[in-house]
Structures are given as C-alpha cells and as structure tokens.
What we know:
This protein is of the alpha+beta class.
Amino acid sequence: MQQSKNHPAHIEVALWQYPQNARDLHRWMRSLSPDERERTATYQFDRDRASFMAGRYLLRRLLSAHTGMLPAEVVLVADEHGRLSLEGRDALQFSLSNSDGMVTVAVATSCERIGIDCERADAEIEEAALESYCNNDERRWLGELSAQERPRAAVQLWALKESHLKALGVGLREDPLSVSFSWENGLPIAAHDGERDRRWFHRLIESGSQHVVALAVCSRSGLPGIHTRMFQDDSMPSE
C-alpha cells in the first residue's frame, strides 16, 4: 500500500530480509545498548540472536530518520510489560516484529496506537492451537476455505490478532479469543470482547516474501496514509 501523491504518509512500514554474516552481526552488536547486549547473550540459537539484533538495528535507523537524532542517541525504554517507547518522544508510536529472516517495523506520527506482527506463511498450526485463538465463527470461516487457502489464512488470522494485542500493549498476556475478526469488503474488521470500535483499522501488508505481515492502527481521525518499503541498509561499517 502506498501513500497518496497529495498527502504524505503518516505510517511507515519497513520490511527487511536481513543478511546473516559475521560482519553485519558485529556491526549490529555495536548499535545495541548495554542491556540489549546482555539480552543478546541469553539467546540459545544464533538465528534468534541475529533476529533480535537486526530488529533493534532497524528500529533505531527508522526512529533516527523520524526524529533527526543519530541512531546511537535513540534511547528505548521498556515498560513493565516489555513494550518499548522512545525516551522523550511519547507522541511517536512504533512497533517491531520479526520472524525467521525478516524484520518489520511500523512507525506512526498521527495515531493513538500501532502494532505489527510478522509470521512465516508456511507455519504449521495444529487444530488444538486453532481452537485456542479462533472462535466458532472464525473456525467456520476457515473451514469454508479450500485446502490450499486454509493454512495461510490461519496464519493471517493469528498475525492480525497478535498485531491488535501488541497495539493494545498487552500482547499474549491477554487471551487471543478476546479479539475476533470478520471481513468487510475484503478487509479485516476486529471486535474486542464482542464490540467493534471504529477507531481501529487492520491491514495485511504485502511482504514480497514467504511471510505474513499484519498491521493494527487505532486512530480517531481515520486510517492515516501507509507507505510500505523494503529496507535497504546503505550504511557502511565504521572504522
């Protein structure tokens, strides 16, 4: 989705299929705060460590562009639930997600809440897991799809729910069944605890890869313009 030619984008969504080599990993490590470096050491698998570092690196690059600060000056503060905010810039909303080789970041300047989630499109979801996050209507909708469509649709439904809960700031501490989705004119529509709040907008973002990306936005003035781009890391390692 692209912004109008006459109105600048108020939401930027950056997608990055990041490289995984020693040179880049070392450079990303230098961009982390001391606390983040300690967290990096707790990951058991290299892929998880690389994903975390790439996510924080991309987030700082985007927040730097939006604020005019250098990436090294971007201070991220986590609340008691782990939700990040930018120190001294409460009005800037952002969300980060990563999954197996892709990092996604959404940054907004004109909305109340934002959440993004990224999942592998080919993730296998067992029936028991579907029952844990899909209500009867959602399972009925999935059951009406073809065998080819159903697996990706189940992942999309999960990503939509997680993006919504991330935007609320609660994540999976809240039951995914508390938010349900239906479709209107081909677009996902959410109801929270059975009530629809028309301040909320949800979109599935084309990722150009084998990933599903879902965006949740809460805005009193309607859905802001959205600009999606593939991030290209043009920075050079410092000597």
